[in-house]
């Protein structure tokens, strides 16, 4: 998803810190099978693009935000400047995030959709939770 | 060839039609009876605010319905259903036969029974026709009074301000948004709106509306009257079920009423389905039978019915009550049992940022949530959807409760570490991946 501006606050990849900012994990749209955002849209403004990603058509989106409460992953966003919803569309098949990542923490390859972060997040939060309880 | 009859051209009806065609590729007869040409009620506020044109509101055109092989009876009203003869009677006396039918007649705006409520310049904002009348009356510099401070009223608030009108909201309850947020959140929204120039009068019981020198004079049980150019009544909705009173279909008598349906959204008569506002479907969180008169429920109901009409055997897990509304760039959303009195509740407030969070637990499970904050804060997080995902999956958050009690704003690590994504990924409404909302090629070429 390209906004045409340099504005990290609008990134559709949100990096979460773990263990006191010693490790990080990027979080973004899974392009899930249901496409909760797509089926929720009352005007058909979210469609599947050539890369197989759910994509917001700006000229159809009215800004009602139904997609943002329908998406159970929290990967629908809203741009107050354009008054449109926006999300990861895999940049149409050539994701700029994978290109830009210097450590190959983000790569782009075909594969089944899965939970990339669950195990990582579970391991990296064990100590924090234990400390809080103690 | 099976004959499907869809009664009502709103969200539920149109989603049912699309799903039938996705499933059968055009191999059945579909007839749509609708009083109005299909449009999306959700987007009328943006037509009012002039950010979209009128043509943008329509969800189907005569050409698109023809392409989908749908026979249309637009402008016709259903007057009686004979479930023994499988026929629907219309207001022109004609009858339509069906093999199975969907009742998706939705709701209409309800005005309070006070003198002058039906007078000139006193509007509802529910149908496209009503929207056109409001547009004609709400002009720059005009003084508008909105009666009712609920979800519907708040969805058109931005548009009224954008039209350059001066707005006063009156509400009979002691505070705004009584059925969408709690007291603490309402107080934040109230302060925000007053700061943005909206006048609010809560606890005000409207007694009559009179026409005085071309203006509307509103009188109240107590307090001074208000004179306005236009009045918009956003005082609730009523389901369109009266026409079915002799049908013999089982209706719920208590609360919001509604057609009693099973987990396939079939009524007490197997060939008759109900969806959307008229259906008393299952609540995903509690399992109770309830009417959820919201757009997402109409959409999911419609698709499940469409699949079942097309011959699938598809059970529906239930709908999640949810709403989002934004007023003057302050976003407010609530999910599930946000007002559950029996829940364990954690709240967080950041008054200087107008931020509010509320998490409601039953045991280790999040059963309701509320989020409020300025757009520039809300949309730099994943939290709106994550709250929905946690309520939808019922992930076991037992290990995280102490953490969330301390900081109700920090839900994302809990979402990830409880592998909520893994629980969500296999979930689909139709038991298969959803299609793009465009015309399936199979229909076009058949």
Keywords:
heterodimer; A: 134 residues; alpha+beta; Alpha-Beta Plaits; two-stranded antiparallel ribbon; 4 helices; 6 strands; 16% strand; globular; B: 446 residues; alpha/beta; 5-stranded parallel beta sheet; 25% helix
Task: Give the SSE map.
The complex is a heterodimer of chains A (134) and B (446).
Chain A: E1 14-18, E2 23-27, H1 36-40, E3 46-48, E4 54-56, H2 66-70, E5 77-79, E6 84-86, H3 96-100, H4 118-133
Antiparallel strand pairs in A: 1-2, 3-4, 5-6
Chain B: E1 3-7, H1 11-24, E2 29-34, H2 44-48, H3 62-67, E3 70-74, E4 78-82, E5 87-90, E6 95-97, E7 100-103, E8 107-109, E9 122-124, H4 128-137, E10 143-147, H5 151-155, H6 157-162, E11 166-171, H7 183-195, E12 199-202, E13 206-212, E14 215-220, E15 226-228, E16 230-233, E17 237-239, E18 259-260, E19 272-274, E20 279-282, E21 289-290, H8 295-309, E22 322-327, E23 330-336, E24 344-350, E25 355-362, E26 365-374, H9 375-378, H10 383-393, H11 401-406, H12 412-417, H13 420-424, H14 441-445
Parallel strand pairs in B: 1-2, 1-7, 2-3, 7-19, 9-16, 10-11, 10-16, 11-12, 18-20
Antiparallel strand pairs in B: 4-5, 5-6, 8-17, 13-14, 14-15, 20-21, 22-23, 23-26, 24-25, 25-26
Main sheet overview of chain A: 2 strands, antiparallel
Q: What proportion of the residues of chain B is helical, as a percent range?
A: 10-25%
Q: In the residues of chain A, how many domains can be counted? A: 1
What percentage of the residues of chain A does DSSP assign to strands (E)?
A: 15-25%
Question: How many strand elements of chain A?
Answer: 6
Which consecutive residue ranges of chain B, at least 5 long each, have pLDDT under 50? none
* Chain pair forming the biggest interface: A-B, 57 and 67 residues
Describe the main β-sheet of chain B briefly: 5 strands, parallel
- Give the structural class of chain B: alpha/beta
Residue-averaged pLDDT of chain A: 92
Strands of the biggest beta sheet of chain A: in what spatial order? 1-2
Write down how many β-strands of chain B occur, each being a DSSP E stretch of 2 or more residues: 26
CA-based shape of chain B: globular
């Amino acid at each position: 998803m390209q906004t045409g501006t340099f504005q990290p606050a609008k990134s559709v990849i949100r990096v979460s810190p773990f263990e006191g900012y010693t490790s990080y994990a990027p979080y973004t749209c899974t392009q899930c099978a249901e496409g909760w955002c797509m089926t929720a849209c009352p005007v058909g403004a979210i469609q599947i693009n050539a890369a197989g990603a759910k994509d917001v058509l700006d000229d159809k989106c009215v800004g009602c935000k139904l997609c943002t409460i329908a998406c159970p992953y929290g990967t629908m966003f809203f741009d107050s400047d354009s008054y449109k919803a926006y999300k990861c569309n895999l940049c149409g098949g050539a994701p700029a995030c994978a290109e830009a990542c210097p450590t190959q923490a983000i790569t782009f390859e075909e594969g089944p959709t899965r939970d990339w972060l669950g195990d990582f997040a579970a391991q990296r939060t064990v100590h924090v939770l234990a400390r809080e309880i103690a | 060839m099976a004959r499907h009859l869809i009664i009502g051209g709103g969200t539920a009806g149109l989603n049912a039609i699309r799903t039938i065609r996705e499933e059968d590729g055009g191999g059945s007869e579909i007839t749509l009876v609708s009083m109005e040409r299909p449009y999306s009620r959700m987007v009328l506020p943006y037509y009012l605010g002039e950010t979209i044109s009128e043509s943008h509101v329509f969800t189907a055109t005569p050409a698109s319905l023809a392409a989908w092989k749908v026979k249309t009876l637009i402008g016709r009203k259903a007057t009686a259903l004979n479930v023994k003869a499988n026929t629907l009677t219309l207001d022109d006396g004609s009858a339509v036969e069906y093999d199975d039918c969907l009742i998706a007649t939705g709701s209409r705006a309800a005005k309070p029974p006070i003198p002058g409520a039906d007078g000139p310049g006193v509007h509802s904002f529910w149908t496209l026709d009503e929207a056109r009348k409001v547009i004609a009356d709400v002009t720059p510099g005009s003084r508008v009074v909105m009666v009712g401070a609920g979800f519907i009223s708040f969805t058109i608030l931005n548009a009224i301000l954008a039209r350059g009108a001066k707005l006063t909201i009156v509400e009979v309850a002691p505070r705004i948004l009584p059925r969408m947020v709690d007291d603490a959140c309402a107080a934040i929204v109230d302060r925000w709106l007053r700061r943005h120039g909206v006048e609010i009068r809560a606890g005000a019981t409207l007694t009559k509306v009179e026409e005085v020198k071309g203006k509307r004079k509103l009188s109240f049980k107590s307090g001074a009257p208000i004179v306005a150019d236009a009045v918009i009544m956003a005082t609730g909705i009523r389901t369109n079920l009266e026409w079915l009173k002799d049908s013999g279909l089982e209706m719920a008598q208590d609360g919001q009423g509604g057609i009693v349906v099973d987990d396939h959204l079939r009524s007490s008569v197997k060939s008759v389905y109900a969806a959307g506002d008229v259906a008393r479907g299952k609540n995903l969180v509690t399992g109770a039978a309830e009417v959820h008169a919201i757009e997402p429920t109409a959409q999911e109901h419609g698709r499940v019915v469409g699949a079942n009409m097309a011959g699938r055997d598809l059970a529906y897990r239930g709908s999640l009550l949810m709403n989002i509304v934004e007023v003057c760039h302050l976003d407010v959303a609530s999910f599930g049992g946000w007002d559950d009195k029996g829940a364990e509740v954690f709240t967080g407030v950041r008054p200087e940022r107008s931020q509010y969070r509320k998490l409601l637990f039953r045991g280790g499970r999040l059963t309701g949530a509320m989020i409020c904050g300025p757009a520039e804060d809300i949309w730099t997080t994943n939290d709106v959807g994550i709250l929905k995902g946690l309520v939808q999956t019922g992930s076991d958050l037992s290990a995280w409760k102490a953490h969330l009690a301390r900081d109700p704003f920090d839900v994302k690590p809990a979402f990830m570490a409880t592998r909520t994504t893994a629980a969500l990924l296999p979930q689909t409404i139709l038991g298969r991946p959803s299609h793009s909302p465009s015309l399936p090629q199979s229909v076009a070429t058949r």
